[in-house]
Amino acid sequence: MTEAMAPNENSTGHHAVDAAVASVQNAAGLSAQEQLGAYEAAHQTLREVLSSIEE
Q1: What is the number of structural domains in the chain?
Q2: pTM value?
Q3: What pLDDT does residue 6 have?
Q4: pLDDT score recorded for residue 48
Q5: Is the torsion defined by CA of 39, 40, 44, 45 positive or negative?
Q6: What is the distance between the alpha carbons of residues 48 and 52, in angstroms, rounded to a whole number?
Q7: Which residues contact 40 (CB under 8 A, 6 or more apart)?
Q8: Rounded Cα gap, residues 3 and 49, in angstroms
């Protein structure tokens, strides 16, 4: 199942990917430990999305 949405100027067109990108962008203002958690969560989300793509 894909979670595509209408793309806009700052959108990839996929809700989960857009949320992961936004969380990485927002992590800049966090402590180093919180940044690590945000990056790991975004990485996991992106891996899941990529693994769900049908060839």
Answers
A1: 1
A2: 0.75
A3: 52
A4: 95
A5: negative
A6: 6
A7: none
A8: 10
Question: Does a structural domain hold residue 4?
Answer: no
In a domain, 42, yes or no: yes
How far apart CA 15 and CA 19 sit, in angstroms, is 6
What was the pLDDT predicted at 1?
Answer: 45
Domain assignment present for 33: yes
Q: What is the largest CA-CA distance in the chain?
A: 39
pLDDT tens by residue, 1-55? 445 545 567 899 999 999 999 999 999 999 999 999 999 999 999 999 999 987 5
17: tokens are 């990917």
Buried b (16+ CB within 10 A) or exposed e, 1-21: eeeeeeeeeeebebebbbebb
